[in-house]
Amino acid sequence: MALVIALVYFAALIIVASLYSKNKVRTAEDFANAGGGMGWIMVTFSFVLAPLGSGHTMSLWEKAAGGGFTDWASFTGIGTGACWWALGAGGIFLPIAMLWIGPLYKKIGAPSAPTALSKIFGKKMGYFHAAFQTMTWTGIGCSELVATGTAIWTLCQASGINLSIYGAIILGFILIVCYVFFGGMLQMAWLNCINAIVMLGASYAAIGIIAVHYLSAIGGWDGVRQVYDAAGYSNILTQTGTLGMVPVWAGVIVPVIVLHTTAGAVSQTMMQPFFAAKDEHACRKGVFLGCSLNIMSSLPWIFLGIAAMSIPAIASQVSPNGLEAVPLIAQAGLPVPAIGLLMVALLSATLSTGGGVVLANSNVIANDIIIGCAVPNADPKKKLRINKACIVVAAALLLPGALIMAHEFVFNLFLWVFSFGMPVFIVFIIGYNFKVSKTAAWLTVIITYIVDCIWTFIPMPLPGIWSMNLYATMVASVVLGIILHLILPGKPAWKKTHAAEIAANTGRTLQA
To answer: Who contacts 460 (Cβ-Cβ below 8 Å, separation ≥6)?
Structure first.
């Protein structure tokens, strides 16, 4: 029953979305960016769901739940400390992106993040970012595919189908392809609008059902609190209790906020809805709605992860990365139809980001690399065929990594991959607003990438946070970016030398 509910829901939704977008998608631009004509509602919902995925579902319950322990002395979770993750991303990153970065791309008039960089620093920088971004976001896409597979695995277990997590990941690959293949950005935007509403309703309903019909056996939420109190972890059940937890802030929350803001700003996956927006107004208008939806969508997974670890029969089965916490409590505490709805909610999040990664990577591969380099004069039909073929290619790139990562904790991958966006963000902002120095930009990016890899793969005998790649990359990006742009020759800021182009782009979009 649970599997049937999910299959019927997504099959019907994908078919309807495909039919809706069929007659509206005629060119590669229509496929990649919905023809640049999306209004603020579709932009808002598409952007809100873009960063949710495994980072705001699976990673959140993994960090909240901990796992892999036989007694509480080995507990590694941060409980409601994970809520700061959601609040930081939804309350800081989203407003910055919607009020500043998205409109900035509309002013530049670029159809993609690599193209925007190429306008400021030349085509070589654009191609470099296109290639590197595709590689790094493939890593994030792998985690989205793992989360998608986890939802499918849970659905199969609830339906009496003994499918392995690896088989579920392969089915997830097919589902992600179908999510964007037929109509591209327009199809995904339409699906995201519906899925955002379903995700909220289903996930909060699951919390209510589990609280009333399952946790009542241990005294409801008070029973959960008593378990954590007895173990000496009562402080992680309140937001105020986690305020003074320096390791949580320095090791999790600050990295999440910094990396979302910097890497997200130059990411095709995150910024994709803004390239599809019809004007700057469409980027900005939904900011309050977007922030609220993003935060609210993240919280249920944290509560479910916390509750799962208060049940000894469940906690003893959860692996060190905490992955099984939510699937196990869902199977134990929800009727089969409700499991179907909860997994639909999880799939709504992971498919939005997973589909976004595939669409963004395929856009970059097709338009910035293949068409831009090899066949710039191809006719519209050929360009559209290339875009669709690259959907399958971009999705296939996720599969090997996802199968390898099936039982791994993805947070360290997140730290490494997102850190590559930090120096690009720094030089992008400097080049647009203050000074264009191609030499300074290249040196900043290359040296910082080397620092990121060294700190990630070679253990650093440094105290505290300075052993983390994030902080080394942050210091390298800012210091090199500022100093090199001060001492090396360059040209005036791009916005000064291209004021007429900005005015034309702004005027065009406002009249659209």
So the answer is: 466, 467, 472
